[in-house]
Design goal:
The protein contains 13 helices and no strands. The chain has 319 residues and is an all-alpha fold. The protein is globular and about 60 Å long.
Amino acid sequence: MRIINLVLLCIAAIFFVWILNEVGWDILGHYLWQVGWYWPLLLLPYGVVNWIESWSWKYILINPPAKITVGRLFWLRLGGESLNQLTPTASLGGELFKASRLQTDGVPLEVASASVVIAKGILVMSLVLYIFTGLALAPIYLPEVAKHMLFLCLAAAGLAAAGIIFVVVQRRGPCGNSFRFLDRRGWLPHFLRDQECFLEDLDTAMSQFYRQYPSRALVAFSLFFLSWLLHAVEVYLMFWLLGHPISWGLAVCLDSLAMLFTALGFFIPAAMGVQEGGNILLALGFNLGFTLGAAFSILRRIREAFWLSLGLVVVWREK
């Protein structure tokens, strides 16, 4: 799978460079120069997004040690998300980092692991709601989208089904049941044989959270959904800085559908190529133009590069 991911990444990188050549480096340079001294503004929304999502994670963690502050979770999320996006682990490598660092800070490993799994599930469900919000707005801002609505709804429904299954399974003892299933058939890997107690404790921690703390799950979901709306603020700001302001509703619609394309490319590190293709297709669909869509995508990549680099620094310091 790692080899397949790397091959797909190479293909996507070639596609990305082709897009830039088609647009023209001079034109892209003009758009980027137009941003001028407002560059720091582009970095701010994602920082707020990560802060809000850290609060959401805080609500999922039950009775953490005093040292586990929102600030600490902010940096751990930043490092974990960098690993998720930059390594061929299908957005899972960073979750191991988060859980291990929480364990180092005094959180039992089963509780730490349960928190990152629960957070991932709630994050996906909030993303589904955000995408369907964009689909509801799409006919208003792009009447022509009706002919593509079936495909978009099916893709969103597939993501929703995956998210629902992921959350429901968390309440049904997935680790212990999988352990016993593999053990009965002689398929259990040797490195898992001594982990039965840990897996049972992990199942208990996940099921207890949903059963005993439904209000915390609702607050976490609401905060994650708010963080997605702030992504739309970023889109609004980027197009304003590019000299082509758009409405708030169009920003939500454009960003939520772009997130659908990005989610479908989760197996490619940083969704390279998939994100650019989706942004440009949506920009064309909303009559914003090929060049403007590419410039918008480049601005997002620059913002990502800053925060991902900072996340890698966090990972390096933690290790």
